Amino acid sequence: MKLKNKTFTGTTSNEVTARETENRKLARLAAAEGFVLLKNQDHILPLKKGIKLGLYGAGAVKTIKGGTGSGDVNERECVNICQGLENAGYEITSSAWLEAYASLYEETRLKWRDEILGKLEAYDNNFFEAYSTTPFFMPCGNPVDVDKASADGADTAIYVLSRIAGENADRHDTEGDYYISAEEKALIAQLSKAYDSLVLVINTGGLVDLAFVQEFDNIKAVLQFVQAGQEGGSAFADVVAGKVTPSGKLADTWAFDYKDYPNSETFSFKNGDVNTEKYQEGIYVGYRYFDTFDVPVLYPFGFGLSYTDFMICTEEIKTVNTKSGKPEIAVTVKVTNTGDTYCGKEVVQIYVSCPQGKLAKEYRRLAGFAKTEELKPGESCRITITFPVYQLASFHEENAAWVLEEGTYGVWTGNSIQGAKLAGSLCVDKDAILVQCEHICPVKEEQTELTPDSSRMKEKETAWLEKAAGLPSVHIDAEKITKETVVYTELPERFTGRAGEIVESLSVEQLIQMSAGDPGKGQDAVLGSAGITVPGAAAETSSAASGEPWNLPSIALADGPAGLRLNQKYQVVDGEIVRENFMKSIEKGFFAELSPEVGTAYYQFCTAIPVGTLLAQTWNAELVKEVGEMIGKEMELFQVTLWLAPGMNIHRNPLCGRNFEYYSEDPLLSGIMASAMTLGVQKVPGCGTTIKHFACNNQEDNRMGSDSVLSERALREIYLKGFEIAVKNSQPMSIMTSYNMINGVHAANCYDICTRAARDEWGFAGAVMTDWTTTFASPRGECTAAGCMRAGNDMVMPGIPKDHENIRRELEEGTLDIRELKRCICNTVNLILQSNRYENAVSYLEQFEGLDAYLSVERSN
């Protein structure tokens, strides 16, 4: 295998490249397809091109493209909403207000910067701690002159409500965050007097309270913009002008009030205890709670309006036999655009009601989905959505098995969970064990979980069973379903294959060095910017085996998931990269002191794509796969092997500060989106994803010390399920463990999830790594590098000498088996051998068969 020549990344020219131009088009398309139209009274949208518009709100000129922290992207430029509308030909009448707001914003930002820099000493010069725990709140802006606005010639105004969030701090259910502030509300009241109609745009990473909308009759349209990347303003104009018909659907349930969420009073800081997080809602997360317990919602899961109307008719439900002996369910629907003006796309969603048997279950769960191609008025298409019967199984804790219980399963089809109609049923003649496994992550204290009233659930089941009596029914013969029994692996005496040969020939000291990232090249930060050869990269693997005879190179890892986070610019002097301060990598160097430029400048402009939640709202796996391939090509260009993305933790509560990075409250939607992104990235030879944060990283406050306490069933059905789907469906090159504990064991030191679940049960073949500084920043220090090796967590990132010292000492004391260390290094070496550091690298996916099959879709006219 021949190594590629390592060159300086980026270009010496500051000119816009063809790659940037093309990638912006795809980012724009993905953003527009993810916007969700929540309200459109009197069909106020789309707006006639060229008309006058009032434009107000924080996000109008300071549109938030994404969250803060490691998920930020240092793109060349970002199109805000005002620019997008003006470029589309709209006349903005409120330019004076917007200019005043821009000045106020800049003034507020400078004060915020000074506040953070002033805290550094109190935080022992830990900039990231000071930065992440001092959130920036967007100023509201000056009051509106009602008389002047009324006379500006515009009938319609757009108000952009914005919020910023990021890692290491949760949001709060307070005014100015989850709730609208008094100043914002007063401004909207002024606008309601000045304009006939208002369009509310929600430019936030997570959900916000919308109760105030009911107080203003002339808020006639509501559009969830989320955070749309660098082309958000252009994409917004496309939708507002009717160039693109909205087709996004909610990836979360929007409650009437924060208190309606089942864990509203106990989440994170809410109960005063950020050390222990009890998941007492069990499996009843998101729509599973609201739908099961009959709690009314403002907007249901899967909801989204269009400029046109669609009719969904179920034509067939059948079983499909497979070679594995586990049947699949195929549902065929006909979708018709029944409107007469606009083309559009529709999302078909399939939900299943499982029988309320020995195990209490949610009323309905998402089982499959697909998005149509664009349909013209009057045009129809057929879609067949096929999903495994395994998607209907529940985890039986007593037996440690995935069980398909005897009884009748109702199949619902529609374009949201609330709009789904019963279409037929599946009848299973007796209990069938689909997968027999062993227990993982035992609860160490008694856990009381939320459970629905059994009599009420039986009433609901009886009601839909009566409706199902006259609908198609499919029989599933349990005897013909093949039972899978998981074989848990043992440590081998020797490791084989090319990676095994290399590992067996390495010295103990080289093995120790290979266990962690490379901390020895003079970088000044270990959190988020410990790259060596790619400036701004998150880290690199060790070069301990780079010499003869192995010639094993290090590989670069870059942050995500809203694009690659690299430095926009760096300098080279006498053939050496000039080391930059860590602050240069944060928010385009906003916090760094200006320094004279020397040598040759290189530019690394990456594409800022929409955040994870917005991509999930497209419900379009094919489109997300395209975005993934685009990212993979940028990785190849900038010599990055692993992208630390996608993030796929469950939206357990709307106040999680990092929800914007993650996809959904639903594990199937999350798993399929992560699979699509991975399949796209890994289509590019030698490039790979890192699905994260594994697992139960559902809060940011005290994220390094919090213990997620939950039942094995909730763990497996909700919090591991998306990861399981992504592994089986797309085989990501790597997995990143989370900071938190799971039932008292640090995720990075947890053999049950790193090895027993991921490798033995799901067949994961890549490498597992820690999140950054896991082993030395946890409050109690129980998470160790040697513990990572015992768990099957293959790489400690970004790596410091103390990690090596810990492993060296435990090998000497006998508490770490040399075979455990070799197993981990073997996984890392195997990944490197398949990386883009080699000539003629091939797609990582080529070695696997049967991928991209968890949810299959066929379309026809």
Spell out the blueprint of helices and strands.
Blueprint (H helix, E strand, L loop, with lengths): L17 H17 L1 E5 L11 E5 L1 H4 L19 H7 L3 E2 L2 H25 L7 H6 L13 H5 L5 E7 L19 H13 L2 E7 L15 E6 L7 H9 L13 E2 L20 E3 L8 H6 L4 E3 L10 E11 L7 E10 L9 E7 L11 E7 L8 E9 L5 E3 L4 E4 L2 E8 L6 E8 L3 E5 L17 H15 L4 E4 L7 E2 L11 H9 L2 H7 L24 E2 L15 E4 L9 E5 L2 E2 L22 E4 L8 H5 L4 H17 L4 E3 L22 H15 L6 E7 L12 E3 L2 H8 L1 H10 L3 E4 L3 E2 L2 E2 L4 H11 L5 E3 L4 H4 L7 H7 L9 H13 L4 H16 L22 E5 L1
Parallel strand pairs: 2-3, 2-4, 4-5, 5-6, 8-29, 18-20, 19-21, 23-27, 27-28, 28-30, 29-31, 30-33
Antiparallel strand pairs: 1-6, 7-9, 10-11, 11-14, 12-13, 12-17, 14-34, 15-16, 16-19, 17-18, 22-23, 24-25, 24-26, 31-32
Helix pairs in contact: 1-8, 1-14, 3-8, 11-22, 12-22, 14-15, 15-17, 20-22
Radius of gyration: 27 Å
Shape: globular
- What fraction, in percent, of the residue positions are helical? 25-40%
Going across the major beta sheet, what is the strand order? 1-6-5-4-2-3
Number of beta-strand segments:
34
Profile the largest sheet: 6 strands, mixed
Describe the structure.
With 861 residues, the chain is of the alpha/beta class. Helices cover 27% and strands 19% of the residues. Strand 27, helix 15 and strand 28 (688-694) form a beta-alpha-beta unit. The relative contact order is 0.13. The model has no long low-confidence stretch (mean pLDDT 95).
Entry summary:
With 861 residues, this protein is α/β, with parallel strands linked by helices. The protein contains 22 helices and 34 strands.
